[in-house]
Amino acid sequence: MKKHLTYVMIMLLGIMLSKATFAQQLVLSGKITYERKENMHKQFDDDGEDNSWAEQMRNNTPKYRIDQFQLVFNSKKSLYNIIVEDENPAFQWWKYACNNTVGSNRESNKMYAYKTVYENNYNITDSLPVFKWKIHDEYREIANHNCRKASTIIFDSLYIIAFFTDEIPVSWGPESFQGLPGMILGLVVPRLNITSFATKVESYSVLEQELTMPPPIKKAKIVTRKSFMDDLINSTKDWGEYASKVYWKCIL
After folding, report:
1. Helix, strand, or coil here: 35?
2. Paired sense of beta strands 183-189 and 221-223, if any
3. 10 Å Cβ neighbour count for 20?
4. What is the pLDDT of residue 90?
5. Closest Cα partner for 144 from 160, 168, 161?
6. How large is the greatest C-alpha to C-alpha distance in the chain, in angstroms?
């Protein structure tokens, strides 16, 4: 009887310790660093291998543009912005919607974003976007966190892959992506050859000022998400197939 009681007590202690350890591992507030990587050579694939201009551009352009972004968050708000921008001169022609700032507020159900598309600046305010996520039985580790795969399609045809972790049970992610049962630590946009993966997760009590949107871009157009999209379509209507690359990247 005494042996049985001792065994039960050891089991209960083990369960309690395991729960305490799990609770300590959960991240509810903090900062995440992401590396966004874009395959620039894919910009020229549609021009064909025999196109001498495209081949010359591939030879003179680094294969990847790599920027670093930071997401500061708690359960109610998040703020996503660039911290290290790849300023290689070869990328100037494709420098659109690269240094986005996006703020999200769960309490007001609002999203705020600053975006630059060539010479035009935009100040976007709208409701938080709603994504129809499908969760898959595929897993990977990102920044020392166990993540599960999810996917969605936005604007009827743009396929998005996300990897989220329930070890950070806060429903945010890069850009305006959110709505999963955990933080998005990995994002893949195959059509645009863009990936964003967390490289570092820091847990701490975030101050309110860290979640405050910076001053808006000067002389920015004040728009909703829809009017922003309409403006993009109108301003790129004569750009041929290149217009779709600009459009899809800008609306992420």
Report:
1. strand
2. unpaired
3. 10
4. 65
5. 168
6. 85
Tally of residues, the chain? 252
CATH class entry, domain 29-250: mainly beta
Residue 19 has φ and ψ, to the nearest 5°, of -70, -40
Q: Where are the domains of the chain?
A: 29-250
Contacts for 162 with CB less than 8 Å, ≥ 6 apart: 133, 149, 150, 151, 152, 173, 177, 180, 184, 186, 187, 188
pLDDT at site 91: 66
At residue 71's C-alpha, the angle toward residues 78 and 158, to 5°, is 90
Residue 248: its pLDDT value, please?
85
Give me the pLDDT at residue 13, please. 42
Q: pLDDT tens digits for 195-213?
A: 999 999 999 999 999 999 9
As a whole number of angstroms, the distance between CA 143 and CA 250 comes to: 27
Any idea what DSSP says for residue 97? S
- The encoded tokens of residue 252 equal 């992420």
Q: CA-CA distances (angstroms) from residue 217 to 114, 122, 223?
A: 7, 8, 13
Phi, psi of 31 (to 5 degrees): -145, 140
Cα-flanking dihedrals φ and ψ of residue 88, to 5°? Answer: -60, 125
Q: With a cut of 70, which residues of the chain have pLDDT below it?
A: 1-25, 45-50, 53-54, 60, 89-95
* pLDDT value, residue 50: 55
pLDDT number for residue 15:
42
What is the spatial distance between Cα 122 and Cα 144, in angstroms, rounded to a whole number? Answer: 36
Give residue 22's pLDDT: 41
Between the CA atoms of 92, 155, 153 and 133, what dihedral angle is there, to the nearest 10 degrees? 110
Question: Which residues have CB under 8 Å from 244's CB, separation 6+?
Answer: none
